[in-house]
């Protein structure tokens, strides 16, 4: 099996840094069947009409998720400003995001918690994050060998629906999840294109939402601000927990994608 993340990292950071900052990794889901193989998707919808707004990952999407997990593991271990504990991994409760999270979780040796706040796809914005057409309890095929911690998902679907109608609603939802995070390790979020675009714009990052796009952010608890977390942030004073200082760098993309359909 994989060596746990904490075994890769030798530098321990004192509590003040962890009390002040939450470090986040945000990932878009992998390749989805309806965009990769439309004929197969139409066939599957005829057999299972209840999933018409909830397409699964392709096999390639699973591979992309595993590759993202390896990339995240390497990055978390190289950024020695952070004492890396077991990551907390949350996912939008759609099949494609839960499967992507499961592929990542298998590399990071953690479980997956479905969360309504991360379901920002266009169908959820139109029909509600709790609509069973947009999410249903994951089956073994969706999860692989990974466990989910709960079902139904955590979070407030009504409040999430209201925030998603606002211009920067997903940014606020991300801040809420970060403010609630009370573990030592980083917070990993698997979500959709729309949410990634909002976060990138908010943090002044170039727009890039390819399959299994991986972006890194940091949340400052005292000021409730969200910004990009870069390799340059390693200048943090581990002795005092002084504010991080960084320069803009581009997010990390693993794969390209075809032209999007209207549901993301």
UniProtKB/TrEMBL annotation:
<dbReference type="InterPro" id="IPR029033">
    <property type="entry name" value="His_PPase_superfam"/>
</dbReference>
<protein>
    <recommendedName>
        <fullName>Phosphoglycerate mutase (2,3-diphosphoglycerate-dependent)</fullName>
    </recommendedName>
</protein>
<dbReference type="Pfam" id="PF00300">
    <property type="entry name" value="His_Phos_1"/>
</dbReference>
<dbReference type="InterPro" id="IPR051710">
    <property type="entry name" value="Phosphatase_SH3-domain"/>
</dbReference>
<dbReference type="InterPro" id="IPR013078">
    <property type="entry name" value="His_Pase_superF_clade-1"/>
</dbReference>
